[in-house]
Amino acid sequence: MEGFEPIVLTDEEGNEVTFYIVDTTRIAGVEYLLAAEEGEDGECVIFRMTEDGGDYVMDPVTDESEIEYISKVFSEQNEDIDIE
After folding, report:
1. What angle do CA 54, 56, 59 make, to 5 degrees?
2. Each residue's pLDDT tens digit, 13-71
3. Among 29, 45, 46, 71, which is most exposed with the fewest C-beta within 10 angstroms?
């Protein structure tokens, strides 16, 4: 993905998963990232950025109502992105 470096995260099983940041948004002072998993069938995940002692932590958003709301924001920002 042009303009963004890949981000490699480790899942619960210890596997490395590569994501590319598609978009970012800030809502009520909270930074959200829309990231696509590497590969043709890669899933999109919304992460919430939090600060922990000077380090930033990416937490996947798991609350369905929050996912729905943030997805709408990303869709409105980028008409060419279809988030389901």
Report:
1. 145
2. 999 999 999 889 999 999 999 998 887 777 889 999 988 888 888 899 999 999 999 99
3. 29
